[in-house]
Amino acid sequence: MAHAPIEPPPYFDALLERLAQGDPEATAALGRHVHWGYWSDPDAVPLTGADYAVAAEELCRRVCDAAPVRDGMRVLDVGCGFGGTIASLNERFKHLDMTGVNIDPRQLARAAETVTAINGNRTTWIEADACALPFANDQFDVVLAVECVFHFPSRATFLAEASRVLKPGGRLALSDFVPSAEGLDALRKHDIGGSETRASYGTVDVLCAEPEYRALAQSAGFTAPTFEDITPHTLPTYKFIRSTAARWQAIGADAYVRTTRRLEVSSRVGWLRYVILSAGLGL
């Protein structure tokens, strides 16, 4: 079924401008990864741009290790952003054939400029829709999607596409925001994903609870999906985002901060969980 064209989240406009200007904090924090961070001790961390980059790299590694990625694999990174996940794999593994997919040619251009293949690895960057992947069946050993699925028009379609392009026995690993059972109604009531969220973060759907997610994955052919809740370790992200919003966004900073606070409160009270999902494709 056709769907409306996907647009890059609005915050990329401000971020790309900061990066083009050579802003040192933006480059340190988000020049490689553009997603939440993971802190082993979330109560005792300074939040400089460099600190944030370390936490974002840790989250990336945890998603990749959930697959897990191994030397010699063919890996597809959907919603690849600036190529941070592929850059991380490039440094850690050998003889990988890695393809990054994104809808935004600006992000792909930065990825191509900043990621140089080493260790016998290969990298390819393709502008494409996550729900209509331009690949033949049975092409990849691993499909990754770090903190992007909530932007896609359909989780069901993406999961079906991931299943289609994976080889039999292949693995999927992703991170996503998943509501708790008790939080689902509360998130609807407080309009998480509403107009102010769309103006700040773009189209966002965080209303797919674990039972529905599990059913969608299994319907796409994935077996025994696991959900690892890492919410407590991601919470310092919100402080960093709020602290940078006013400096980086000349327009819409107040709405961006309000939206971020709603997401943070929802996470702290248990309505919204940050989850790493991993699953295998049946043989």
Automatic annotation (TrEMBL):
Q: Which residues form the Methyltransferase type domain?
A: 76-173
Keywords in alphabetical order: Methyltransferase, Transferase, Ubiquinone
UniProt record, GO biological process: methylation
Short name of any one Pfam family annotated for the protein: Methyltransf_11
Entry keyword annotation includes Ribosomal protein: no
Q: Name one GO molecular function term.
A: S-adenosylmethionine-dependent methyltransferase activity
SUPFAM superfamilies (UniProt xref)? S-adenosyl-L-methionine-dependent methyltransferases
Residue ranges of coiled coil: none
Q: Which CDD domains match?
A: AdoMet_MTases
Q: What is this protein called?
A: Methyltransferase type 11 domain-containing protein
Lineage start? Bacteria, Pseudomonadati, Planctomycetota, Planctomycetia, Gemmatales
